[in-house]
Amino acid sequence: MSHVSHAPVTTPDGEPAIPAPTAYEQVEGWFSDYDQAIFDWFLTHQEESGAEPGDLLELGAFMGKSAIFLGKYLREGEEFTVCDLFDSPAPDESNLAETKDSYPTLTRRGFEVNYLAFHERLPTVIQAPTFVVADRVRPASCRFVHIDASHLYEHVVQDIASSKAVAAPGAVIAFDDYRSEHCPGVAAAVWAAVANEGLRLICVSGAKLYATWDDPEPYRKGLLDWLQGRPDLWHGIDDVAGQQLVRIGDHGAVAPEPPKPLRPAPEPEPQPVAPPKPAPKPRPGAAWRKLAKDLLPPVVTRAIVTARRRRRERR
Ligand SMILES: C[S@@+](CC[C@H](N)C(=O)[O-])C[C@H]1O[C@@H](n2cnc3c(N)ncnc32)[C@H](O)[C@@H]1O
Asked: Cross-referenced SUPFAM superfamilies, in alphabetical order (predicted)?
């Protein structure tokens, strides 16, 4: 971590200040360097390949780590929407248990303070369970959807259906935690959508699966070209469920340039410089003793020292 200080932020209504991060590394979350590199590739590729403008959507924002990153790629005229419960109650008991244990300190204000430390404007925030998204986000409007909210099977099934409704042609859908032992429901829902719903695979990292509801080939080709020049990411190709899947592994992945804070950390206060200590005064006779030691033969020096000691003892 390069910076550790936080600039204080006060709200206009006088609520207690929440410290704002002054560097991206300070934002809490689970968004690895490795997936940052892959997000960057997809979003830059969309820009460079002249993809139509399209909105960005994140289900599950927590304290904003991945949202702040996604916000960097928002282009003129596009909308970025995040949906999270934040500090609202979860819609069912299992979801309540999941969120209470995993995100006990999460608040919407915490997210907003973090996001505004890096961007001038907040995204559109939907503070609600993700099942409202299909009604609140325009159909076929999004070019990139990050699904990282509830990791319970029923919720992910619903989020997958919403992603299909809001996906613009060629949209990328990124699923978090598609293979972790602590959330098998995500794997079950994602692979069921691949087998039965027409979800098309692009690639996987250790933590995320990237797919589309359209032809994955244009992405796959560009991705493989890019990976050739990335020794920090190993890759291979497997056939899975009749589709080609690019596997991407971490060889010390280098993250892209992190989002820049709008207000960098203040320079540290200059510390007062202590005046130099005066040199110690030489003891009386010290210069004479040094000269004698350097010039006289040791036998004479010893005799003088012994005579001086005896004189001191007699006093
Ligand atoms: C793993 S965190 C998101 C992490 C974030 N994307 C990042 O990379 O830092 C999951 C988030 O989903 C939210 N969440 C859980 N269940 C939800 C639901 N049913 N509807 C909306 N949000 C939910 C939680 O409040 C939490 O903030």
From this structure: S-adenosyl-L-methionine-dependent methyltransferases (SSF53335)
In the β-sheet with 80-84, what is the strand arrangement from edge to edge? 124-127, 80-84, 55-59, 142-147, 167-176, 208-212, 200-204, 243-250, 233-240
Q: Phi/psi at 124 (nearest 5 deg)? A: -70, 120
Question: φ and ψ at 201, to 5 degrees?
Answer: -80, 145
- Ligand 1: which of 103, 135, 163, 183 to mutate, judged by most atoms within 8 Å of the beta carbon? 103
pLDDT in tens, 31-68: 999 999 999 999 999 999 988 899 999 999 999 999 99
User: CB of 218 within 8 A of CB of 170?
Assistant: yes
- What are the structural domains of the chain? 24-250 (3.40.50.150), 282-315 (no CATH)
β-strand pairing of 233-240 with 243-250:
antiparallel
